[in-house]
Design goal:
The chain is α+β, with helices and mostly antiparallel strands and about 500 residues long. The protein has 4 domains: about 5-95, Uridine Diphospho-n-acetylenolpyruvylglucosamine Reductase, domain 2; about 105-225, Uridine Diphospho-n-acetylenolpyruvylglucosamine Reductase, domain 3 (2-Layer Sandwich), CATH 3.30.465.10; about 230-455, Vanillyl-alcohol Oxidase, Chain A, domain 3; about 465-510, Orthogonal Bundle (Vanillyl-alcohol Oxidase, Chain A, domain 4), CATH 1.10.45. Helices cover about 30% and strands about 20% of the residues. It is globular, with a radius of gyration of 23 Å. The two termini are about 20 Å apart. The chain binds adenosine-5'-diphosphate (ADP).
């Protein structure tokens, strides 16, 4: 893209949506870059545009096609650890949908239709202010949007925690500017757009998740009816090796549906990194010794691993399920098992387990001091204790090799486990930043050697991760790119996203 193409496009954008909603000054561009990247210029967009309506989105798409300017759609752009608001290709213009904030909620069916700018805090306030007995599922850092998080397969802690799985019905501006509604929404006036997923013929909702095939302007989502009870146990485990048998205890309960949320078994650094900074524990830059680990565990009264298991629903059902959980752990060497109990009428439970948005875990970016940040590395594993333990041992050794503090969790899906590894860093420490990049690449290769793939990744590593999905010499990539070329002949929507490149830009693939 030449400067003159860009300035012509910006002129048209200003005419279409108003100069006040087109941002091209250096400060604006910095605001839309990746604040967790050591080098923000690497993915700094050329500009950003913020439309207020679907018609304005379509106008922008028409202009982008005309000038062949790539657009990078974001909802609120708080995808911290994965690139934030920043695009893969730095010549892109960020399409900031944060001004579109309409909420259409149906308390009877427990469904909501949100525009991209609706944040978790916005939707929570809406439910509270209108006294609607529905619970959200929120991610650990709830700064982002309901739609953007679901579109990147974000997760939460309630039975509705697999956010992309709760999507029912989308409105999408295709890269050519055409507007479609998926599922039952394809029938004008249908009352079941948000209640029956399939519609008639092929289902397309998931095609717009983690893809660059369209710009989602409305997203339908199922919300959980407020349960009568939220019960549980907080389990603590003393030794790293306890991971193996704990996984084999929890996984069957998850598979059977006794546990319907996704418990996440994390190590001692999880609390410490949020509540404290590293220099409160040691002045040494080297690996954290056993003495520090012991002190952290003592201060927070936690094990080497901790996991919170919760049961939901009518009190009778939640109690019965919890009894089954207790029975499964009976006689096993747990360090501690603390019961928790909330029943309707009690004061608010107040955590993400009851869908309350929080942002304080963002404090973990401050662990090392300096300008902090983190990047997440999360391969998907079979739900098997021996494999989880083996994964722990290999990745823990890599944390030691690269001199990074071990920060990981194993989150239970219905039939798989996500091993979420956080690399916490200080962007002002160039030596550390060099190790982070090398370590990330080795983690990907290490997982690939075991045939494990990541479920979500940072914009810098999308090609790397996509390349590990190599069956049939990259048959899935070819399929994705065939679809991309058909839907987006000018390659204007999020080129490079998820390793999917439009025809004219395939040479950009890393
Ligand atoms: P959040 O609002 O939770 O901060 P983001 O806006 O950062 O989430 O979105 C996460 C990722 O999902 C973005 O990088 C983008 O690729 C994709 N995305 C977000 N919103 C949309 C949308 N409305 N249409 C298409 N893709 C989107």
């Amino acid at each position: 893209m030449t400067p003159s193409t860009l300035s012509a496009a910006l002129k048209s954008f200003r005419a279409a949506i108003g100069a006040a909603n087109v941002f091209a000054a250096d400060d604006d561009r910095r605001a839309y870059s990746d604040h967790y990247s050591p080098d923000e210029s690497k993915h700094m967009p050329t500009a950003a545009v913020a439309p207020a309506s679907v018609e304005e989105v379509r106008a922008i798409v028409r202009i982008a096609n005309e000038h062949k300017v790539p657009l990078w759609p974001i909802s609120r752009g708080k995808n911290f650890g994965y690139g934030g608001a920043a695009p893969v290709v730095k010549e892109s213009v960020v399409l900031d949908l944060g001004r579109m904030k309409k909420i259409e909620l149906d308390p009877d069916s427990g469904t909501v239709l949100v525009e991209p700018g609706v944040g978790f805090f916005d939707l929570y306030d809406y439910l509270q202010n209108n006294r609607i007995p529905l619970w959200l599922s929120v991610p650990g850092n709830s700064w982002g949007s309901v739609a953007g998080n679901a579109l990147d397969r974000g997760v939460g802690y309630t039975p509705y925690g697999d956010h992309s799985a709760q999507i029912c019905g989308l409105e999408v501006v295709l890269p050519t500017g055409e507007l479609v509604r998926t599922g039952m929404g394809a029938m004008s006036g249908s009352p079941t757009w948000l209640t029956y997923r399939n519609g008639f013929g092929p289902g397309w909702d998931q095609m717009f998740v983690q893809s660059n095939f369209g710009i989602v302007t409305k997203l339908g989502l199922w919300l959980m009816p407020e349960p009568e009870a939220l019960l549980g146990y907080d389990f603590e485990f003393d030794k790293p090796e306890d991971l193996g048998w704990a996984v084999d205890t929890i996984a069957p309960l998850r598979r059977e549906g006794v546990i319907r949320q996704a418990p996440s078994m994390g190590n001692w650094l999880r609390s410490a990194a949020v509540m404290t900074t590293r220099d409160q524990w040691t002045k040494s830059k080297g690996p954290l010794g056993e003495d520090v680990i012991t002190a952290i565990r003592k201060r927070f009264n936690i094990g080497w691993w901790s996991v919170q298991v919760r049961t939901y629903g009518h009190l009778d059902i939640a109690e019965a399920a919890l009894k089954v959980v207790a029975k499964a752990f009976a006689g096993k060497p747990v360090l501690a098992m603390k019961p928790t109990r909330w029943v309707r009428g009690d004061p608010a439970e107040g955590s993400p387990f009851s869908g309350v948005p929080i942002s304080f875990p963002l404090a973990n970016a401050n662990w090392h001091g300096g300008r902090g940040g983190h990047v997440g590395y999360s391969p998907m594993l079979p739900a098997k204790g021996s494999l989880a333990l083996d994964q722990f041992r290999r990745t823990h050794a890599l944390y030691e090799k690269y001199g990074m503090d071990y920060h990981a969790s194993f989150a239970f899906g219905e039939r798989s486990i996500t091993n979420v590894n956080q690399l916490l860093f200080d962007r002002d420490d160039p030596a550390m930043m060099g190790r982070v990049d090398a370590m990330f690449r080795e983690l990907v290769q290490d997982a690939r050697a075991k045939n494990y793939g990541e479920y979500r990744t940072h914009i810098e590593y999308m090609d790397l991760v996509a390349s590990t999905y190599d069956f049939g010499n990259g048959a899935l990539r070819r399929l994705n790119e065939k679809v991309k070329d058909a839907l987006d002949p000018n390659g204007i929507v999020a080129p490079g996203k998820s390793g999917i490149w439009p025809a004219a830009m395939r040479k950009e693939r890393k």
